[in-house]
Design brief:
Layout lengths: L7 H9 L5 H11 L10 H14 L5 H14 L12 H6 L1 H18 L2 E4 L3 E4 L24 H10 L1 H9 L13 H12 L7 E2 L15 E3 L4 E7 L3 H4 L2 H12 L7 E7 L8 H8 L1 E5 L2 E10 L4
Parallel strand pairs: 5-6, 6-8
Antiparallel strand pairs: 1-2, 3-4, 4-5, 7-8
Length: 305
């Protein structure tokens, strides 16, 4: 799609819903495909100006970048508060009520300027065909709500991992805090998030041999022909090698009969990866040789903010 100019009001409304440190949002924009370097401005002005720059760059798909930037906010509402909501003050402090208000405003601003948001970070001009199998409804904060596809489910769970970590790393008085300092920690958390939704999860299944060795998959979902591989970036040195590690994994995994898709989850809490969008673009896509084909997706996530 050719680049579409993003109206100032749309850029401002999107900037209003973004939260986090400069480093974490810089990483978000870079992963979304926004051209750098980041504007040297204060918080709200910085993100609004960066989105305006996106809309003025003929080499960028502005609607795709905007959708990627706001996707987590739009598709991942906060959990309801523990206490009952009985007063106006309770309503004012309720995170779900505040979230709904901000989301409704952003949806209205988008529609006022001729755009419509669809789950999964897709923004389409009004009048163009809607994505297939998309009801244009956010995932509701209610028991039993379920994403409409395995892809939607995995994106919510993967991008929500830092938020899922937060109550475990900040536990109640006299309860030991948990840490997520190794890949095994991240794998265990992801496994626990997947189990209520997916019946057949096979951790550590061996792959066929490649270059004289074999390896184990972190998770194989055979019903969906999908492998999930988890990496935790340990330091700057490891950040420069994680892409090479995944290239080797890809060669192993595409030889497995039940592996048609590979989703790589890279947890980088200290933002050691200097160019996350470059790492993702180098790895993503369909990889085909005489040994097999696998479709690769990459998610680089940072600590909760």
């Amino acid at each position: 799609m050719p680049n579409v100019r993003l109206p100032v009001a749309v850029c401002a409304a999107a900037a209003d819903v973004l939260s986090g440190s400069h480093d974490s949002l810089n990483a978000l924009f870079e992963a979304a495909g926004a051209p750098g370097p980041p504007p040297d401005l204060a918080h709200h002005s910085k993100w609004k100006t960066w989105l305006q720059r996106v809309g003025n760059d003929p080499n960028v798909d502005s609607l795709a970048v905007l959708g990627n930037v706001i996707e987590e906010f739009m598709d991942l509402p906060p959990l309801p508060s523990d206490g009952g909501i009985t007063t106006l003050l309770d309503i004012a402090l309720d995170p779900v009520a505040d979230y709904n208000k901000k989301r409704e405003r952003l949806v209205k601003v988008l529609e006022d300027h001729g755009f419509r948001y669809f789950r999964g970070g897709r923004i389409i001009p009004i009048g163009e065909p809607a994505p297939i199998n998309d009801t244009n409804k956010p995932i509701q904060v209610s028991e039993g709500a379920k994403p409409s596809s395995i892809e939607d489910l995995l994106k919510v769970i993967i991008r929500g991992l830092p938020r899922a970590m937060h109550p475990l790393t900040h536990r109640r008085k006299n309860s030991p805090n948990l840490s997520f300092t190794s890949e095994y920690d991240i794998q265990d958390l992801l496994h626990s998030q997947l189990r209520p939704w997916i019946a057949d999860i096979r951790p550590e299944e061996f792959t066929p041999s490649y270059a004289g060795s074999n390896t184990r998959m972190d998770f194989l979902l055979p019903t969906h022909k999908l492998v999930i591989e988890v990496k935790r970036v340990r330091d700057k040195s490891h950040a420069s090698k994680v892409g090479d590690e995944l290239i080797i994994d890809i060669e192993h995994y595409r030889r497995h009969q039940d592996a048609q898709y590979l989703w790589c989850v890279i947890y980088d809490p200290e933002l050691f990866i200097s160019n996350p969008s470059g790492v993702a673009s180098d790895l993503e896509g369909v990889r085909t040789t005489t040994d097999g084909t696998i479709n690769v997706r990459v998610f680089i996530i940072s600590a909760a903010t």
